[in-house]
Structures are given as structure tokens and as C-alpha cells.
Amino acid sequence: MMETNFLIIGSGAAGLTLAVKLAEKFPKKKITVVTKAHQSESNTKYAQGGVAAVFDLKEDSFQKHIEDTLIAGDGLCDKKVVEMVIKEGPLRLRELMSWGANFDTNADGELTLGKEGGHSKFRVIHHKDTTGNEIERALLARTDQLQNITILPHHFAIDLITEHHFPELKTEEISCYGTYVLDQISGSIFAIKADCTTLASGGMGQVYGHTTNPAVATGDGIAMAYRAKARIENMEFIQFHPTAFYDGKNQSSFLISEAVRGFGAFLRNKKGERFVLDYDARGELASRDIVSRAIDSEMKKSGEECVFLDCTHLEIQELKIHFPNIYETCLKNNIDLEEDWIPVVPASHYLCGGVVVDIDGKTSLKNLFACGECSHTGLHGANRLASNSLLEALVYADRIFKYISKNLPLRTTISIAEWNESGVEMLKSSEILQQKTVELQQLMRRFAGVVRNNKDLKEASIRLEGLYAETEDLYQKHKLNTSLCQLRNMVNVAHLIIQQSLVRKENRGGYFNEDYNQ
Ligand code: FAD
Ligand code: SIN
């Protein structure tokens, strides 16, 4: 068993920001970050467009950013949270810059600002089209300088340790005492006991298979919190990004940033028509749910497998300067932006709901915090405004840091049992896990995708019960590995999405159910 003061699960923008702040303030305390792949692997690393924040007080204002966020959230945002995040955003970004993150500036050294769907002003600060990679680089470099941070890469958090693991403790309140962790290289499982634990484990795009998210985004933190009986909400609000590169396969795919549409690119169907204008006067820069549904409807009408993003009318040299990564990646796929249209489809991109937290990042369990994409703060409501998620991750890491600084958690005296593996068998082949994962992803795309209806959701619920029973059986009887734990977590997350979709009896924000189509 390992002991630490502050345990953080995940090494994206949320987890690393919290680690840096705690390490700076408490040089004598131990901060441990467990992360299930290489330490840089995360949704953060792939963020393109940038971070939305008000830096241009002549053209923009906090009020306008607040209004845009509330409009996107369609009545379900928590106004107090929206105001707090948007007003604190620039401070957090300045702090990130002080740790070495570089954002694009003009010849006068002023930040250059991009625009994305739903924003009334140019306010997205960025590092070319690889903003997330730059943030991740800067944060990891800062953690390297701090002696009291231990990052454990290739360590998979399996389950939170709570009263559930100590039946002799008869208490009403559930507390978190750390987590059981699988060392993905040796295969051994051990406990990490912590004074307090923060989930910073990111999103769940892999539940749909076809996603802009990398392989690590399997909703583990949400599933762990759910099993530990924490409150989880707004899981029906999955944001589908309209423009994921289409290569004919249903797996993680490269994102074509909304900033490219902000730069003037047009969406066209195969006939060359700018069809989005028939759905919304804002055209390509309508909110993501509207553009994704317009594409979905266009594809269903025409029977085509994708639509296209046309950049051929744009100034190519400028495009290359702003979007070098997108330009090069398209070229590698034989798409020359000067001449060819990019084939695109909507793909699962972001989870607006998650583990419910209060304004200090506290979950409903004692000594358990959450921040970043796995959390539900109230900022996004029914739909997230583009580039508001990195902002939320930075601000909430800081909120948790401030709360912990004022309310230092006590050392826990409880003694934690070793992980019990007696009686388990080695899984004969990993093929079954692969098959079940694909089955789950197909089910979610088919029955709980961009456009849903109650009949499909009920069908999904029934089919998922079967998958749940089969997965639990595999989990109980076999030695654990990453794929098995991830499958179990994705089944839990799919259950939450389906059940919370069935409870919502209206269309709102990013949630669209044909049965409520007025
Ligand atoms: P992540 O960055 O996803 O980090 C989660 C970490 O948890 C990872 O290190 C992961 O390995 C680890 N982890 C997960 N489960 C476990 C486990 N069981 N055990 C141990 N470790 C675990 N947002 C914006 O604001 N602007 C953008 O321009 C933007 N562009 C995007 C482009 C793409 C392609 C994608 C996919 C997302 C984009 N987003 C953008 C969304 C944004 O990147 C994420 O919401 C944000 O980075 C989430 O940060 P996080 O720290 O919460 O999670
Ligand atoms: C993008 O660059 O289009 C993604 C931005 C986001 O998800 O906020």
C-alpha cells in the first residue's frame, strides 16, 4: 500500500493544475498523480481551438461571455458558477502563462483571439491549432520542477475506497479514503490511501467509439464515483462535434477544429450546397448541436456517409499559419485544403454532465473532489460553449486548491485491506473484451446518438442489461486488466446516459429526442 496526502486521478489540464498549486503551497506534503497511460495522454493534449476568456475589454466584456455561455446552456446553467468561472478565467490563464504556456500573439505582443460557434466576440486564446498540447507541455514541465509531486504513469485507478470496503464501519456519510490501482505494466493491484482524492479523469467519448477523444476517454472517474454512490447528473447531454475527419472507420478520429469554420470554411453536401443555412441563419457558426443535427439530417436524407468542409475559397497561406496541424494531417490523408473538401461527420466529443460538484469542487462524498470534464459544475448546462471546458478545468482546479488550503483534510487512520484476487482466473483471450466493447459502442451510436427517441432508448436499456451482466461476470471471475476495467466503466457510463436520457421529457440544448420535436 502507498500513502499520500493528496491523490489526483488524471494528468490532463485539471489534474496537473491542481497538483502544481498544491505542491507549491505545501512543499512538505506529498502529491500523487495516477494516470493510466503516458502522463501526457489526455483529452487536453488534443485540444485545438483554445481557451475562451475575456482579454479584450474594448471589444468584449465578461457580461457578453456570460450571456453566450447561458444561451448555449439553454436555461440549465448555474448563473453563479458561470459568472465565477468567466471572471476568474483570465487570472488562471495568466497563471498558466507564468508557468511557461505560450499563446499566439500579434506583432504588438497582444494575444490573438479566435472565434468559435456560439461566441458573439473573438475571445479564444490559442497556440496555433495545438493549444492543448502546449498546455499539457507547460504543466508537465512545471510538475517536473516540483519535488513533492509523484506522477505514476501507466497506473489505472480501479475503484474508490469508501465505507463500502469496511462493512464494520456503520456510518451514514460516505467518505473517500483513496483508490485501488492497477499497475498496468506488472499487473499488480495495490491501494493508495489518501487524506483526500480528486477525480480529474476526463471524458467518455470512447463509449460511442466514433469520437474525437483519445483511447483513454472511457469515463472511468464517473463510473467509479457512480459505484461509490456519488451524485451524477446531466449525463444525457453529450456534445457531438460536427466536424470529425471521416475516414470510413468508426473509431477515434482527428478533429477539424470549429475555429476553421470561425476562419470562414463552409459546410457543403455532396451536391455542393451550403445546407446549414437551411437549418439556422448563423450557418456554420450555429451552436454545435444545431450543426451536428443539420449534418445528421442531411446524411439521412441523401444516404451519404459524410458531408464536406470546404476551405478552398480561403487564403491558403493564412490557413497554413493558423492551422498547421490540421493542414498537414489532411495532406497525409490525401486532402489538399487548397483544392479538396475535407470529408467530415459528427462524432462524440464532450460530456456536459458528470460527477456533481459544488462551487468548491466538492462531490457528494466526503474527501472526494472532482474537476475538469468528469465533473458537473453547472457551467455548461444543456450544452457547452466552445472552448469553455479548458477554462472550467483551470478554474475548478484552483477552487479545489483554495478550499483544501483553508480546510486541510485530516490524516485518515483507517487501515485498508489488500486487494483480494483469490480464486480469479486469467482471461483466456482478450478477444471477448474487444467484441463486447464494439457491441457497446455500436449500441450507443445506434440507439443513443445525435438524435434519440424513447423507443430506441428503451431498447438500448434492455440490451445494455445483458452486456452489464456479462461484463460483471467477467470482472468477478478474472484477473483484472485495463480493457476489462474500461469495459466495465463504459457499461456503467452508458447506463447513466440512457437512464438520464429517458428521464428528460423535452428537447433542450444538446439533447434532442424526436418524440418531443415540436
Ligand atoms: P483530460 O485532459 O482528458 O485528462 C484526464 C486524465 O485522466 C488523462 O490523463 C487520463 O489518462 C486519466 N485517466 C482517466 N481514467 C483514469 C483511470 N481510471 N486511472 C488513471 N488515470 C485515468 N476544450 C476547450 O476548452 N478548447 C478546445 O479547443 C478543445 N478542443 C478539443 C479537441 C479535442 C480533439 C478534444 C478531444 C477535446 C477538446 N476540448 C477542448 C475538450 C477539452 O480538451 C477537455 O474537456 C479537457 O481537456 C479535459 O481536461 P481534463 O483534465 O478534465 O481531462
Ligand atoms: C474545436 O477546436 O473545435 C474544439 C473546441 C472545443 O471543443 O471547445
From TrEMBL:
Its main location: cytoplasm. One of its GO terms (biological process) is NAD+ biosynthetic process. Keywords: FAD, Flavoprotein, Oxidoreductase, Pyridine nucleotide biosynthesis. It is an enzyme of class 1 (oxidoreductase). It is found in: Cytoplasm. Catalyzes the oxidation of L-aspartate to iminoaspartate. This is L-aspartate oxidase. It comes from Aequorivita viscosa.
